[in-house]
Write a structure and sequence with these properties.
The chain contains 16 helices and 20 strands. The protein has helices spanning 51-66, 74-90, 92-103, 107-110, 114-127, 166-180, 194-206, 220-229, 242-252, 277-289, 309-322, 341-356, 392-395, 411-418, 434-443, 476-481, and strands at 17-19, 22-24, 31-35, 42-47, 135-136, 145-153, 156-160, 183-187, 213-215, 235-239, 258-262, 268-271, 301-305, 360-363, 382-385, 402-408, 428-430, 450-451, 470-471, 484-492. A hairpin with a 2-residue loop joins strand 1 (17-19) and strand 2. The chain starts with 16 loop residues before the first strand and ends with a strand.
């Protein structure tokens, strides 16, 4: 291990599974490498969980749910989550560096995640004491019945997260589950498992009882599939591709477990001629280039009003060329590598498809291979002009720093074309006209509409998709509802 990749969690030991409060070997004894995508260097060997390990983890989670954790008071869970948040804050700089090492996002991004990550945990801690039922005045039965509802935790949650934001994705699943009294088996992505494993250790230190949070790294087709179909799991919370989401829905049918899905997108980002150009140019650029485009709601379909199309797209391309690409450990770097060689092949494949379909690259368009960048998985910010709606680069999620720029002439047209996708996760509108902004906000079929901004996030606001971008919400009071069941209680009072 080189000097620049030394980290307190990277001690040269195999990173084992966390089941029932203990670090354990995988049942198979197999391991896989966690690789730094900026250098190709192996950071650690990680135990490879499979179906047998998922069985052990689910059993531990069930014992905890039916045991001591099921008897904890909301205020106790709140204090545990607050202690957990304090520990994450204490080690936050190390978490930021570990995310950068494991999946490539620049420190400039992972460090800026502090407020959101800590805010999420403390927000859910606050919600732990707000779960309540209601008394109901029966509409037909009259006064001889007293009726009320109870809100109860769903039970054992199988949480499956992606690699593009390991810290935030983990906390987005752990926070509401623990706040409501559920227990969790967390399956991190094999491309970036290190942060979730360390979070599991800190949770124990914060007072989370053994079995309440279990972390089982492994591959989707083994560990992930086993978790999705497991009869002992009451709910699956998944973030990832729509293809995997469909498989999870199929796997859930065995015991009709609850499912929430936060899936992919091909989000329209719409720029009108009356927009503030000084805000819209960098805003539209970073809507697609941030995190190397590895964001599910990235604004990758850039619709620009015809009268400013050439000027605006060239300015976005020029902005992309000014962004510093490189190893994310350099605090000056703004765009890091793609997460893996497989992802690199996917994105460069789409770059070739775009050219073959007749799109015109204004910036980027090829893998970076010179010097140190050649050892990693780097693609520069790319802007394609002359894109038509039917092109694959305009319809399919690339998950790389690639903008497809498309001209439009009026509102009705851009609404129709913006909605002409199987996805519906995010969207952006850039205009000074408040009436136009409200009209677009109502007309776009997506779970989030950002006006004169992009990717604004807050724990109090719900996030999720329409159509093939999934169902269920993360964030806000709506998120807590995903982890609760409602029970109706009837008491006859005239006996």
């Amino acid at each position: 291990m080189t000097a620049e990749t030394r980290h307190s969690f990277l001690d040269g030991k195999i990173k084992r599974l966390l089941i029932d409060g203990r670090r354990v070997e995988s049942a198979s004894g197999k391991t896989f490498a966690s690789v730094n995508p900026a250098t190709g260097e192996t950071l650690a060997q990680v135990a490879e969980g499979d179906a047998e390990d998922i069985d052990r983890a689910v059993e531990a989670a069930r014992r905890a749910f039916e045991g001591p954790w099921g008897r904890t008071k909301p205020a106790e869970r709140q204090m545990i989550l607050l202690r957990f948040a304090d520990l994450v804050e204490k080690h936050f700089e190390e978490f930021a560096a570990l995310d950068t090492l494991d999946m490539g996002a620049p420190l400039s991004r992972t460090r800026n995640n502090r407020r959101r990550a800590l805010g999420m945990l403390r927000y859910y801690a606050g919600l732990a004491t707000t779960v309540e039922g209601r008394t109901v005045e029966n509409s037909l039965l009259g006064g001889d019945f007293f009726s009320y509802t109870l809100r109860e935790p769903v039970g054992v949650v199988g949480a499956i997260i992606p690699w593009n934001a390991p810290l935030s994705s983990s906390l987005w699943k752990i926070g509401p589950a623990l706040a409501t009294g559920c227990t969790v088996v967390l399956k991190p992505a094999e491309e970036a498992p290190l942060t979730p494993l360390w979070l599991g250790e800190l949770a124990l230190e914060a007072g989370v009882p053994p079995g309440v949070l279990n972390v089982v790294p492994g591959y989707g087709e083994t560990a992930g599939a086993a978790l999705a179909r497991h009869p002992g799991v009451d709910k699956v919370a998944f973030t990832g591709s729509h293809i995997t989401g469909q498989k999870i829905v199929e796997a859930s049918a065995g015991n009709l477990k609850r499912v929430s899905l936060e899936l992919g997108g091909k989000s329209p980002d719409i720029v009108f001629a009356d927009a503030d150009m000084e805000a819209a140019v960098p805003g539209a650029a970073m809507a697609a280039f941030s995190n190397s485009g590895q964001i599910c709601s990235a604004g990758t379909r850039l619709f620009v009003e015809q009268k400013i199309y050439e000027q605006f797209t060239h300015r976005v391309a020029e902005y992309g060329r000014t962004l510093r690409v490189g190893n994310g450990l350099d605090p000056e770097v703004q765009v890091g590598p793609l997460v893996s060689e497989q992802q690199l092949e996917r994105v460069t494949g789409y770059l070739a498809i775009g050219r073959q379909e007749g799109a015109r690259p204004l910036a980027g368009g090829e893998r970076l291979t010179e010097g140190a960048l050649g050892r990693g998985y780097f693609v520069p910010p790319t802007v394609f002009a002359d894109v038509r709606d039917e092109m694959r680069i305009a319809q399919e999620e690339i998950f790389g720093p690639v903008i497809s720029a498309i001209p439009f002439t009026d509102i009705d047209e851009v609404v129709r074309r913006g909605n002409a996708t199987m996805f519906g996760l995010g969207s952006g509108v850039w205009t000074r006209d408040v009436g136009k902004a409200h009209r677009l906000a109502k007309s776009i079929r997506a779970g989030s509409v950002w006006v004169n901004c992009y990717q604004a996030m807050d724990p109090a606001m719900p996030f999720g998709g329409y159509k093939m971008s999934g169902y269920g919400r993360e964030g806000g009071q709506e998120h807590l509802e995903e982890y609760l069941n409602t029970k109706a209680v009837w008491i006859r009072t005239d006996l």
